[in-house]
Design goal:
It is built from one helix and 16 strands. Strands 3, 10, 11, 13 and 14 form a five-stranded mixed β-sheet that branches. Strands 4-12-9-15-7 form a five-stranded antiparallel β-sheet, with no helix packed on it. Strands 1, 2, 8 and 16 form a four-stranded mixed β-sheet that branches. The longest helix is centred in the N-terminal third of the chain and has 4 residues.
């Protein structure tokens, strides 16, 4: 399903500057995947590794869904980048985790009705070691890799209908690089 939504900028594209990705700032949209500041984790594998349990339920089982693990090989994007559409997955979360030192920018809007304009969007820049879990229904732009490379994506898989709704912004927003 695709929706057209008006942006609040009149005619010229609004510039959206990404801010650093922090758990507190990103909380309305999902969870940051990173070792929590000050956390020590617990020793495993005979003390050769430390385990940090970050999120106990990825919410991937709605409507008969199951966890799907994919690998995205992303090309580096050029910035500023024009954002003309967003998508959401209402039935499950979606996680993006870089393999190696790979920065990316994530443009999001809160779950619910399609965003009405630039004022409802937020952009975050990762530090290359962070990933994100988007909460079910969170509007987001496709992966905006700053550094080309591979990303693990964990999302809901199911037979039948694809859980992806798209909204197009009538006035695009430009997102600056990190």
């Amino acid at each position: 399903m695709t929706h057209d939504v008006a942006a609040s900028t009149g005619g010229a594209a609004t510039m959206l500057a990404p801010r650093p990705l922090t758990p507190q700032a990103f909380a309305p949209f999902g969870t940051v995947i990173a070792v929590p500041e000050g956390a020590e984790g617990r020793a495993i594998n005979g003390g050769n590794a430390r385990r940090f349990d970050l999120l106990s339920d990825l919410r991937l089982d709605a409507g008969g869904g199951r966890p799907m693990l994919a690998l995205f090989r992303a090309q580096a994007r050029r910035f500023p980048h024009e954002v003309a559409e967003l998508e959401r997955h209402a039935l499950g979360s979606q996680a993006f985790v870089p393999l190696g030192m790979r920065r990316f920018v994530i443009v999001v809007a809160r779950a619910g009705a399609a965003p009405a304009g630039a004022g409802e969007l937020a952009a975050f820049a990762t530090d290359g070691q962070q990933g994100v879990v988007l909460a079910p229904g969170t509007w987001h732009h496709a992966l905006l890799a700053v550094d080309a490379g591979d990303f693990v994506v964990i999302e809901r898989g199911a037979a039948g209908a694809i859980d992806c709704e798209v909204c197009r912004l009538r006035v695009p927003v430009r997102v600056d690089g990190p």
